[in-house]
Amino acid sequence: MWGTVGVLVVALLVLAGCDDGSDGSSSTDRVAGVYLAALRWAVDTDEVAPPSTGDPRNDDLPVVYALNLDGSAVPAAVQVVVVKELRDDLTLRFADARKEAVDDKHEGDPVHDHGMLVQLGSVPEEGQEVTVEADVYRSADDQQTYQLKVRFTGEDWEVVEATPR
């Protein structure tokens, strides 16, 4: 009996020491927070408009594709957090490769679904303010790279400065 109690006490102590990420300090929360800030900024700045049917009840949400700038996969846990947070505002599709977002069969290589592609550079592991590179792409003739300064405000991450490059 004492052996079971001892194992239970050790398990509880281990769990108590684990970071649940509720204060935004876990790696997943940090990367997801920066992604959320950058995607909200890109959509607000670019004013992505969904195709309209004329009836607001039937209009689709704007479509945004997201991809790491280096071509690596965005971790699944980050994708879940970001998609859940933005689900009422836009249709977010994480791509594994740029070709999944860009329609190279049409002139000008537009993004599928009249959307935009946002590619983000790596998120630094430390600091309450980070700088990340962001490439915002609508078509071959409509693309811009930015250096984003993103700051943790205590609850959320927010883009505080965007410098075109």
Task: Note the main sheet.
Answer: 6 strands, mixed
Quick check: average pLDDT?
Answer: 83
Distance between the termini: 66 Å
Compute the CA-based radius of gyration.
Answer: 19 Å
**How much strand content do the residues show?**
25-35%
Number of domains: 1
Instruction: Please trace the helix and strand order, writing H or E for each element.
Output: HHEHEEEEE
Structural class: alpha/beta
Note down, in words, how this protein is organized.
The chain has one domain. The longest helix has 20 residues, at 27-46. It has helices at 2-17, 27-46, 76-86, and strands at 63-68, 91-94, 116-120, 129-139, 142-152, 157-164. It is 28% helix and 27% strand. With 165 residues, it is of the alpha/beta class. The chain has 3 helices and 6 strands. Strands 2-1-3-4-5-6 form a 6-stranded mixed beta sheet.
SSE arrangement:
Elements (H helix, E strand, L loop, with lengths): L1 H16 L9 H20 L16 E6 L7 H11 L4 E4 L21 E5 L8 E11 L2 E11 L4 E8 L1
Parallel strand pairs: 1-2, 1-3
Antiparallel strand pairs: 3-4, 4-5, 5-6
Helix pairs in contact: 2-3
Descriptive keywords:
single chain, 165 residues, alpha/beta, six-stranded mixed sheet, 3 helices
